[in-house]
Here is the input.
Amino acid sequence: MKVLFVCAGNAFRSPLAEALLKKLREDIEVDSAGIHPASRIAGATKKFLDRESALKNVKPRPEGIDSKNLEDYDLIIVMESWQRQAIIQLNPKVRDRIKVWDIPDPYYLPPEEANRVFETIKVKVEELARQI
Here is the structure.
């Protein structure tokens, strides 16, 4: 099983989900990417992952969706519906592999709201780890 998490910049949500799932399920190949990759992984993401003992699983820098062969993944989880459309435009063949989580971008939120977003992602990743 190969899972790809996608968000806008691969700085907050998708690398967090990737690192948490890697911690929970070492038997699954997990990756993440951004539609428009940022220059670095967000400090808030690293701080949360450190508290969750998953910091070692975070990638060194954001990666773009265009660097991925989307057909290699069994499941592609996007954080917002517009990202689903962007992926379908890149490769319509993966349409049925995409799941939308509807997680807001913490980049635009105050720190306490960002932490709630991170906790929501943690719960969803734990559910996913049990399901797959």
